[in-house]
Amino acid sequence: MKSLDELRKVRDQVRKELELRSGAHRAKVVVCMGTCGIAAGARDTMKALLGALQERSLTDVAVVAAGCRGFCEQEPLVEVQILDEPAVTYGHVDAAAAARIVAEHLVAGRKVQELVFR
Fold it and tell me: Can you give the residue ranges of every domain in the chain?
């Protein structure tokens, strides 16, 4: 970093991302970030989810990390919890799938059936 303005921009970006990870929200998205998930690309999945939420200015969805769920062959795994609805777990969630989950499940209210982990 070369200036105080650059540092402020980084600080503001981190604050926005932290707001998406905590607090009272209508929905919570859990990204499995065990070593198997990270090896399968869970960090990119997390970044894609945060980016898609930010693009749509969705501030009522918390995004949190969790450990391994034991289904390593399905990683990256993402669970979507919306208020009183049953949780939905998605498997093999890459960046494109993460964007679809935000658009279809979190915005439109429809599960992305072909991504649902069975």
Answer: 4-115
**What is the spatial distance between Cα 90 and Cα 113, in angstroms, rounded to a whole number?**
9
- CB-based contact 46:65 (threshold 8 Å): yes
Residue 102: per-residue pLDDT: 97
CATH architecture of 4-115: 3-Layer(aba) Sandwich (3.40)
Q: What angle do CA 38, 42, 45 make, to 5 degrees?
A: 160
The answer to whether residues 37 and 68 touch, using CB atoms and an 8 Å cutoff, is: yes
pLDDT in tens, 38-62: 999 999 999 999 999 999 989 899 9
Phi, psi of 110 (to 5 degrees): -115, 130
